[in-house]
Design brief:
Strand order of the largest sheet: 1-2
Structural class: mainly alpha
Number of strands: 2
Shape: flat
Largest sheet: 2 strands, antiparallel
Order of helices and strands: HHHEEHHHHHH
Radius of gyration: 27 Å
Strand content: under 5%
């Protein structure tokens, strides 16, 4: 571009490249925000020195640089650390696992839930309940088992008007899970 600033083709390619870069930058920021547990970062303080300092501190806190085994030997290479951890937890858990069935005879629904509450739990999920939960959710919390975080559902809800059939479908899906 610096050799021929008036070339329209090069200008278009530069715009296209900048658009792609902006898109990738936003995707990276979104990924970091989802991984961040600091609410101030999630409320708009992203892409700052503070944000990246938090990421580095979190990584340093969870990183095991060296470990000492039961005999007092210190290991700093990844293979040695892994071997010490495997040995420790193998000894802790033991060679065999006793799989016995616990006695659950003392547990019954009447001990914890009244009959009226138990019946209300069998009712279908109302559309208003779904909307209330979506609105109250923090959009940047970790995604659920389906991979969608609350932000997805909040955006989707702005385009979607839930109906009773959706609530019935949600109820049958919830029973399946």
């Amino acid at each position: 571009m610096s050799t021929d600033p008036y070339n329209i083709t090069l200008q278009a390619e530069e715009r296209f490249a900048r658009t792609g870069l902006d898109s990738l930058s936003l995707a990276e920021e979104s990924m970091h925000k989802q991984r961040s547990r600091d609410l101030a970062v999630n409320l708009g303080d992203g892409n700052s020195k503070y944000f990246y300092r938090l990421l580095r501190a979190r990584h340093a806190h969870s990183f095991i640089s060296q470990i000492t085994d039961a005999e007092g030997n210190t290991f700093s290479e990844p293979q040695g650390i892994a071997a010490v951890l495997v040995s420790y937890f193998s000894n802790l858990l033991g060679p065999t696992v006793d799989m016995h069935q616990p006695d659950l005879s003392y547990i019954s629904p009447s001990n914890y839930v009244s009959d009226e509450d138990a019946e209300s739990l069998k009712l279908p999920v109302a559309v208003s309940e779904i909307e209330e939960v979506i609105k109250a959710s923090n959009p940047n919390k970790a995604p659920g088992p389906d991979g969608f975080n609350a932000h997805f559902f909040k955006i989707e809800a702005s385009y979607w008007e839930p109906s009773e059939s959706d609530a019935i479908g949600f109820h049958s899906w919830a029973e399946y899970c």
